[in-house]
Specification:
This protein has 162 residues and is an alpha+beta fold. It has one domain: Aminopeptidase, CATH 3.40.630. It is built from five helices and seven strands; from the N terminus they run βααβββαβαββα. It has a seven-stranded mixed β-sheet with strand order 1-2-3-4-5-7-6, with helices on both faces. Helix 1 runs antiparallel to helix 2 (29-40).
Length: 162
């Protein structure tokens, strides 16, 4: 299944809000508000925040928010519409991010995942990300954050060798 991935526009706002609300519901209102705020920021012209949506026809089925960080892109947020998770939309968005980062000369992709979100950790590991760090009590006592990276130069060499 292949979806169109295009730049986020205000016309996508309502559909993206619904996806963000659904995904962040169990995390608390503050998470939802912070992520929505990032979609409202007007930093895209400077290339600092890059916002994209995956479309099935005209229906928004997923979204990815990227941030440029020196020679790397950071996946700040990735979400897929409820009922469509596990069918490849998230993988398409990550592959899109890899391609974009490579085209912009980035050496890698990074994503941070709460250690209790084991399904998310597994998802990124299957896509070739490797754990590069772990911080205990990251947001509050008892939680921890796992940092994963994907070396795009190494991924390109592996692809060429096959």
């Amino acid at each position: 299944m292949s979806h169109s991935i295009i730049e986020f526009t205000p016309a996508h706002r309502e559909a993206v809000d619904a996806i963000l609300h659904d995904v962040t519901l169990s995390w608390g209102k503050q998470w939802y508000e912070n992520i929505c705020h990032m979609y409202c920021l007007e930093c895209t012209s400077k290339g600092f925040l890059l916002k994209y949506v995956a479309l099935d026809g005209q229906d928004v089925v997923g979204t990815i928010l990227l941030r440029r960080a020196i020679d790397m892109y950071v996946i700040e947020f990735l979400a897929v519409k409820k009922g469509l998770r596990g069918v490849g939309v998230g993988s398409e968005l990550v592959h899109f991010a890899e391609k974009l980062a490579r085209e912009k000369g980035a050496k890698g992709l990074r994503v941070d995942v709460a250690s209790d979100l084991r399904q998310n950790l597994s998802f990124y590991r299957k896509l070739g990300f490797e754990i590069c760090g772990h911080v205990q009590d990251f947001y509050e006592p008892g939680d921890s954050q796992v940092f994963l990276t994907k070396n795009l130069a190494a991924a390109q060499v592996e692809k060429a060798e096959k």
